[in-house]
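Subgroup meeting minutes
Present: P.N., E.W., G.H.
Scribe: E.W.

1. P.N. recapped why we're keeping a running log of single-chain structure predictions: easier to compare across weeks, and new members can see raw inputs and outputs side by side.
2. G.H. added today's entry (203 aa).
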Amino acid sequence: MFKPKRVGVLLGSDCNFNCKYCFRPNEKLKLPTQLSDRLKKYLSSVSSEWCESVVCTGGETLLYFDLIKEVFSYVPKNQHKVILTNGSLLTEEIVNYVNENDIEVHLSYDGEQTKFLRGVDVLENPKILNLVKQIKVLMVFSVITSYNPSIKENYEYVKNKLQRDDFIYLCAPMIDHESTRWLIKNFDYDMFYRETWYFLQHI
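Output recorded in log:
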């Protein structure tokens, strides 16, 4: 049996955002709308002894909330579980579900330049902001470009928005792709790695 450290379940490629740095093709992947018996059996056999986490991803993952619940219903209860999302579709029901089931939520958010890079800043919506504040196990992940190059500034912006510091913060430079290369023009990778090291040491 294949035993990866992370099991990623791609639920669909539909997304309600049009991020500037997204390099996925416009045509949608034709994915099955139901879980196969083979996948159900595999999910049931996942073990925390060799798998760090089972991750539901998209597209925008919360477009497939019913499918998320089905996926995790087959995963052993003590297995670490993750949902990747842009946060725009959060509801009280979803927040209650992730908190009650100890699911880690990875919120994609790029600091002060989020609206420019993604077209929408979900934390400008008081309802969404309040819901994100309620998530027990939260990770915020930023894509770093020439327009939001400072890890420290992005982290501080998120911390001030959420009025909490009990979240995980991770980031990575935007992938170099011909369609989005303008977003990392003159990007200072040395500064990025120096800031990453400082962040890991002190924050």
